[in-house]
Amino acid sequence: METLAVDHPLVAHKLTVLRDVDTDSPTFRRLADELVTLLAYEATRDVRVAETTVRTPLVETGGVQLASPKPLVVPILRAGLGMLDGMTRLLPTAEVGFLGMIRDEGSLQAQTYATRLPEDLSGRQCYVLDPMLATGGTLAAAIRLLLDRGATDVTALCLLAAPEGLRYMEEAFADTGTPVRVVTAAIDARLNEQGFILPGLGDAGDRLYGVV
Ligand SMILES: O=P(O)(O)OC[C@H]1O[C@H](OP(=O)(O)OP(=O)(O)O)[C@H](O)[C@@H]1O
Ligand SMILES: O=c1cc[nH]c(=O)[nH]1
Ligand SMILES: [Mg+2]
């Protein structure tokens, strides 16, 4: 598995405001959206394209277009929905599938409560969206599901990742033979006793959508 922590002053600036406990929900949503677009630029570096031609006002020339089948973007509900618009802004022709997952705050085990994905993902490049990679249980389960359906490579975009979760992912996808990547705005210090990322930004779903 490959991990990329995007090193860019604008990413660092926006992430700092996102972490601030005094940042309100509308600002949090806007910043999450902007950060995803910056991460998406790096995350799509290997997106498959096919050669094509284009007629300019002067001549015909070569170019590229997104290859078929189109990439599949998969936000993990709830918090991953806050990243969808930022991603599809860069990949407007991508298809979108949905996974609803929740982590039990006692056992820290992830449960899937909704799946709306193509049955057959053979040949598909997939981009999974989830702001928080904490223990890694949620993201690993989501990626396993995509690989089981035939996805040929999977890139996860996360706003924050914990070292514990990245180690878990590295072990889980050490010998799958399928490329798995994590692109994140930062790798934080550690998890606390409740499985929250430190210094982190708190509960991403609650900060985006309120406490339920
Ligand atoms: O790496 P893990 O230890 O599995 O934890 C990370 C998961 O926890 C959060 O979701 P949560 O379960 O709070 O659901 P929500 O998006 O509905 O808030 C977060 O958005 C990840 O999906
Ligand atoms: O720090 C964390 C860990 C899991 N889920 C969150 O929203 N935040
Ligand atoms: Mg949550």
TrEMBL record:
Alphabetized UniProt keyword annotations: Allosteric enzyme, Glycosyltransferase, GTP-binding, Magnesium, Nucleotide-binding, Transferase
Catalysed reactions listed for this entry: UMP + diphosphate = 5-phospho-alpha-D-ribose 1-diphosphate + uracil
Coiled-coil stretches: none
Documented EC number(s): 2.4.2.9
Activity regulation comment: Allosterically activated by GTP.
Start and end residues of each Phosphoribosyltransferase domain: 6-210
Name of a matching Pfam family: UPRTase
GO annotation terms (biological process): UMP salvage; uracil salvage
Positions annotated to bind 5-phospho-alpha-D-ribose 1-diphosphate: 78, 103, 130-138, 203
Superkingdom: Bacteria
Cofactor: Mg(2+)
Binding-site list for uracil: 197, 202-204
Cofactor mode of binding and number, as noted: Binds 1 Mg(2+) ion per subunit. The magnesium is bound as Mg-PRPP.
Pathway of action: Pyrimidine metabolism; UMP biosynthesis via salvage pathway; UMP from uracil: step 1/1
A single Gene Ontology CC term: cytoplasm
InterPro entries in UniProt: PRTase-like (IPR029057), PRTase_dom (IPR000836), Upp_B (IPR034332), UPRT (IPR005765), UPRTase/APRTase (IPR050054)
MF GO annotations: GTP binding; magnesium ion binding; uracil phosphoribosyltransferase activity
Function of the protein: Catalyzes the conversion of uracil and 5-phospho-alpha-D-ribose 1-diphosphate (PRPP) to UMP and diphosphate.
Similarity annotation: Belongs to the UPRTase family.
Record protein name field: Uracil phosphoribosyltransferase
Protein species of origin: Thermomonospora umbrina
Gene, per the UniProt record: upp
